[in-house]
Design brief:
GO terms for molecular function: DNA binding. InterPro entries: Homeodomain-like_sf, RNaseH_sf, Tc1-like_DDE_dom, Transpos_IS630-like, Transposase_Tc1-like. One of its GO terms (biological process) is DNA integration. The protein is elongated and about 95 Å long. Helix content is 49%, strand content 12%. It is built from 14 helices and seven strands. The protein has three domains: 40 residues, no CATH class; 47 residues; 197 residues, Nucleotidyltransferase, domain 5 (2-Layer Sandwich). The protein is of the alpha/beta class. The chain starts with 5 loop residues before the first helix and ends in an 8-residue tail after the last helix. Strands 5-4-2-6-7 form a five-stranded mixed β-sheet. It has a two-stranded antiparallel sheet with strand order 1-3.
């Protein structure tokens, strides 16, 4: 059966005559309507630069898009945008993910999280003092990593990295207390931190009408700590296990660590200085907005049936 004329096809299909003529010419010359190999716009990142990107990531999967762009400029003489690099890496099946460094939630944990969220859904959080501790280390802290298996990516911490531990407390009035340290915290040291950095500040903000939030770390729940808390804190709030996502300070840690990473401290003294400065730079409005998110966090936990929430 021969090929019909362009006008006949146009009459039957209403496809533009120019389009039909172009396709018929391709069919006669190539024997197919498929695009020939090599047709279309060339990739901005060629095979050689693509291999270089893979090598960069295998050497250091914490490398950022801006750092990759700089490496391509310096080593491959190629200037491309970070969005182009991101799209290319996704074509290579790389995902940019956060390491899995939080404990798994058991069915019992999830049930207790839901019950806690229902219990505190309509709380007035204005008189709650939130507390938390975090560790800062030289070079990188909360870092996204490139991985072809993001669900299996584990947080790897080099043992020889110098670290600074930080305890902070916040309330609807803003900052309450701050303390940085490098020694190991036990119950005695935790009580000392609360004595020197929490009690007088909380009383100044709330008189004696406030409640303390803390997680279930063993040193927070030891008999010695609980005895001291009972004598010095008006109300101790119950808290569900394995639930850092419910604490608004977690979001503040991310802000502080991101700012510090941009400043690239080169030694432990610089790291300490930057931590202190960035804590002071946290705006009061940021803290208030985070605390005002508590009702929504509770709603999300209830809706997700106790699963970890992305906040």
């Amino acid at each position: 059966m021969g090929i019909r004329s362009a006008r006949k096809i146009h009459h039957d299909t209403k496809i533009p005559l120019s389009t039909i003529s172009y396709q018929l010419k391709k069919l006669r010359t190539q024997g197919s309507l498929q695009h020939r190999a090599g047709n279309g716009r060339r990739r901005k990142i060629g095979a050689k630069c693509s291999r270089a990107l893979g090598q960069f990531i295998r050497r250091n999967n914490e490398v950022t898009l801006h750092e990759l762009a700089e490496k391509l400029r310096n080593q491959c003489k190629l200037t491309v945008s970070t969005s182009t690099i991101s799209r290319h890496l996704h074509c290579l099946q790389y995902d940019n993910c956060l390491p899995l460094n939080t404990p798994m939630l058991t069915p019992e944990h999830k049930e207790r999280r839901v019950q806690w969220a229902k219990q505190h859904l309509n709380d007035n959080w204005e008189s709650t003092v939130f507390t938390d501790e975090s560790t800062f280390q030289l070079f990188r802290n909360t870092i996204r990593r490139w991985s072809k298996n993001p669900t299996e990516e584990k947080k790897r911490i080099l043992k020889n990295r110098q670290k600074v531990h930080v305890w902070v407390s916040i309330s609807s009035h803003g900052k309450v207390g701050f303390h940085s340290f490098q020694n190991i915290m036990d119950s005695d040291y935790y009580i000392e931190i609360l004595e020197n950095n929490l009690i007088s500040n909380a009383k100044r903000q709330f008189n004696n009408k406030w409640r303390l939030q803390q997680d279930n770390d063993p040193k927070h729940r030891s008999a010695k700590t609980e005895t001291w808390l009972a004598a010095n804190v008006p109300v101790i709030m119950n808290w569900p296990s394995n639930s850092p996502d419910l604490n608004p300070i977690e979001n503040m840690w991310n802000i502080i660590k991101h700012r510090i990473e941009k400043r690239k401290p080169t030694n432990i003294n610089e790291l300490k200085t930057f931590i202190d400065e960035e804590w002071k730079n946290i705006e009061k409005d940021v803290i208030i907005n985070l605390i005002n998110s508590m009702k929504n966090r509770c709603l999300l936990v209830i809706e997700s049936k106790g699963e970890r929430i992305k906040y």
